[in-house]
Amino acid sequence: MKILEYMQLALSLAEKGRGSVNPNPMVGAVVVKDEKIIGTGYHRYFGGPHAEVYALDEAGSDAQGATIYVTLEPCSHYGKTPPCAEKIIAMGIKKCIVASLDPNPLVAGRGIEMMQDAGIEVETGILKDKADKLNEIFMKYITTKKPFLFLKCAITLDGKIATKTGSSKWITNAIARKRVQELRHNLMGIMIGANTLVADNPSLTARINGGIDPFRIVIDPDMVTPLDSKFVSATDGKSILITSVEQKPFTQKYLEKGVKVILLQGREFSLEDILTEVGKLKIDSIMLEGGSHLISKAFTEDAIDGGEIFIAPKILGDREAIPFIDGFNIHNISDGIELKNTKFNIYGDNISVEFYKN
Amino acid sequence: MKILEYMQLALSLAEKGRGSVNPNPMVGAVVVKDEKIIGTGYHRYFGGPHAEVYALDEAGSDAQGATIYVTLEPCSHYGKTPPCAEKIIAMGIKKCIVASLDPNPLVAGRGIEMMQDAGIEVETGILKDKADKLNEIFMKYITTKKPFLFLKCAITLDGKIATKTGSSKWITNAIARKRVQELRHNLMGIMIGANTLVADNPSLTARINGGIDPFRIVIDPDMVTPLDSKFVSATDGKSILITSVEQKPFTQKYLEKGVKVILLQGREFSLEDILTEVGKLKIDSIMLEGGSHLISKAFTEDAIDGGEIFIAPKILGDREAIPFIDGFNIHNISDGIELKNTKFNIYGDNISVEFYKN
User: Fold this and answer.
1) Quick one: which of A60, A349, B132, B172 is 20 to 30 A from B32 by CA?
2) Which alpha helices (DSSP H) does chain B contain, by range?
3) CA-derived radius of gyration, chain A
C-alpha cells in the first residue's frame, strides 16, 4: 500500500465518528510498520480517547520504529485526554504523516513541533483537502465560534414546501426522509421557525439506530410556542427557544419546563446573532429545517454554509402554496442565487441537490 | 449470442433512426445464420427503405434458411416501399422473430400471417416492452391520430422559468441546452405560446449536426405574433400558427409569408383540439416548450404524454417570478400532480427529471 492509501484508510475511519464526536473533530489514525498495518483507530465519541490512542495501543510495543498516519495534527495540550503528540513520542514512533493541520489556536503547529523536537520525521498536507472537507464543521466552529449552518428542505418540483393550508406530509419519499434522520444525527442542532413548530409540532429527533438527538432550536420572537408542544415537553434539556428580550416576562414557564431561553434584541433576529448565541452553547452545527421565512433570511444574509435540498417529482402548481424561499427581487436570471459545489444524490424517485459555500 | 441479444442489437439499430423517420416507426433488423450475423439494417429516414431491406440485401443469397430479428412486425402492404413480409419470404428466410406487433390497422397481424402462410416459423413478443417503449410516439399517433406531447422546460430550484421581467437566459447550462437541441431533432414539432414568442423571438431550430428542424407551432388566439419574428420569416414552410376563427380576417399576411394557419373556435383552445388539428398535418410528436399558461393547461387536461424538466441549482426567491406551472388549487400534498415513471439525468451541475404517463 502507498502513503495515499493509508491516509485514505485513516480518513474512512475518521468518518465513522460523524455525528458522535461534535463539537470535536473526526479523526482517524493508522500505524504501519514494514508495510503492515499494526494499529488503527478513530475518535469515537465526544470526550473519548483520541484516534491515535486506539491505534497506538493496538500496535503496542511494535509501534517502536513505526509510521503513524493521522488525519489531523496530533494534539499537544492537556484537554479531556493527555496530549497525543506525547504518546506518539513515548511509543517510539519514527515518522508521522499528517493530513490537516489543526485550526484550533490551542494546538496549531505545536503538536508537530513537539514531535519534530523529539526527532520524529513529520510530513504534512497528505490528502489535506479531503481531510479539511471532512472536518468543515469543526474548522468553521473552531475559527469563528459560530455553528456550521446546513440547510435541509424538501420541495416539490415547483419549489413548494407546503400547500396553502400547510399540508406538507409527505413531499419526499421514505428513502429521502431516512437520510434526513441521518443528518439530524450528523449535525448537533436543528433549527426551525415558530410557525413550523406550531403547524407541525415536530419531535425533531434522530430516528435511526444509535442516532443522537440534536439540540432543538426554535426561533420564536412572539412566544407562540405552545407549552404542550413536543419541543417544550422534551426532558433531555436539548430544547432552546430564541425569543425577543421583550418576551422576558413570559419566559418563566418555559424555563421551568427545562427549555433553555436565549433573548435577542428586536423581533427580526439576524442569523449572525442567532449563530453567535448558539455557538456559545458549544453547538458546532445546525441543520436549518425551515420554514420559508427563516430559510429566506438565511439566504439573504448568505449565512448558509451548505445544504441538501430534496426534490420530489410532484407539482402543486398553486401560486398560494408555500415556497421554500421568498422575498427576493430579481430582474435578471444572472442576479439569482447560484448554489455552489453542487452534487446530486438519488433517493429512489426523489433527488437531492447538495451544495456548499466552500 | 442468444435470442435476446440479437433482438437487443436490432433495437439499438432501430434507435439510430430517432427523429429522422417520423411519423414512421423506428425499426431495426438483424439476419443471423449459423450463429453468425450476416446482415443488419434500420429504418434511416422517412420514406426510405425499411430495416428488413437493408438487412436482407446485406445477407444476399445467404439469407436462404436464415433467421431474421425485427423489432416491429414486417409490413404487408404496398406503401412507399413494397411489403417487407414478401421480401422475407422471397429471400428464403426460415424463421422470423418479432418484438412489437404493428399497431397500424393497415398492417396489424397481416405481415405475420403472410409469412406463416409461406411456411416461415414466426415468434413474437421478444423484448416487446422495450420495442413498444422505443416507438411510443408512433404507437400513440397511429392509434389516436394525435401527436405525442412531450414537455420540455428549464426551471430554477424554486420552479421558475423566468424572472418577473421575462429574463430567462440562461437558466440551464450548455450541456442541458445541447440535450434540448437533440430533443428538437427527435420530435417532429415544437409548440410555444405567443407570449413566449413575443418575449424571446426564438428560432426554434435543432442546432445539432444533421439535426432536422421541427415544425414550429405557436398558439396565438389574439394574433400578436410579429410579422418580423423569426417564426414568420422562416422559409421552410414549417411554421404553424394556431389562432381563433375570429382572427380570420387578419391571417392573410401570415399566409403570404408561408405560415400555415389553423383556426379554432373560441379563445381558450383545448390541447385536445390543438393535438387533433396538428395530427392532421402528419406531425406525430410535439415538444411543448412553454410558457407557463400553455404548460399549466396541458397539465390540467392531462394531455402530457411525457417530458423532461431541467433543473438548475439557481434560486430566484421572488414571488413575482414566472412559475412553470400555475392555476391549480391544492389543499393536500396528496392532491398535487405526481409525475410517473420518472428517471433522472445529470448534465454537469444541472439535472433533469424525465417522466412518462405510460
Assistant:
1) B132
2) 3-15, 51-59, 84-90, 110-117, 128-134, 136-144, 174-186, 194-200, 230-233, 252-256, 271-280, 292-300
3) 23
What predicted TM-score, i.e. pTM, was given to this entire model? 0.92
Whether A15 is a known active-site residue: answer no
Closest CA to B29 of B82, B93, B105: B93
CA–CA gap between residue A288 and residue A304 (Å, rounded): 9
Catalytic residue among A52, A73, A289, A308: A52
- Across the interface, whether the CB atoms of A331 and B168 are under 8 A apart is answered no
Q: Report the amino acid identity of residue A241.
A: L
For B338, name the nearest residue in chain A, comparing CA atoms only.
Answer: A314
Beta carbon pairs, A and B, within 8 Å: 159
User: pLDDT digit of tens for each residue in chain B (358 aa)?
Assistant: 689 999 999 999 999 999 999 999 999 999 999 999 999 999 999 989 999 999 999 999 999 999 999 999 999 887 777 899 999 999 999 999 999 999 887 778 999 999 999 999 999 999 999 999 999 999 999 999 999 999 999 999 999 999 999 999 999 999 999 999 999 999 999 999 999 899 889 989 888 888 889 999 999 999 999 999 999 999 999 999 999 999 999 999 999 999 999 999 999 999 999 999 999 999 999 999 988 999 999 999 999 999 999 999 999 999 999 999 999 999 999 999 999 999 999 999 999 999 999 9
ipTM: 0.90
| A184: amino acid identity, one letter | R
- CB atoms closer than 10 angstroms to residue B117: 10
- The helix (run of H) or strand (run of E) holding residue A140 is helix A136-144
Contact list, A168 vs chain B (CB under 8 Å) = 333
